[in-house]
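Appendix C reproduces, verbatim, an entry submitted by the partner laboratory led by Prof. M.T., so that reviewers can inspect both the input and the predicted structure.
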Amino acid sequence: MIKQFKEIFRITINSNKASPTPPIGPMLGQRGINIMEFSKDFNNKTKNFKDEIPIPINITVQKNKSFSIALQKSNSIYHLKQMSNIDRGSGQAKHEIISNVKITMLYEFVNLNYPNLSVPEKIKKCKSLISTGKSIGIKFI
């Protein structure tokens, strides 16, 4: 089977912050991607997002050096830290609680970001986020 593309790679960029500066510029340049075109395309796709949200993207580079960008969901740890107003997680998560988050706030977050899930799936997502939050020292009340 002949590949239709040259390469697929993943990178995380803050929303509205794509620019030709390192590390993004050299990473794209070595693959033959037009850096300014990529920056404009990415910034246009993320213009409705809140600034500074880290967004993982998959970039598919075609053999003719054209590219396509597929935005992914941002990291759940980032959102948990935003909800609890902390910059970094606890070094000793089981012994040191650094913040509290209400479970109702977490459920509202899941309703906003995952509207297509059924109620049992939303509950599973909440449980998953609770265990992730506990691993960085967040207590859910």
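DSSP finds five helices and five strands in the chain. Additional entries are available on request from the coordinating office.
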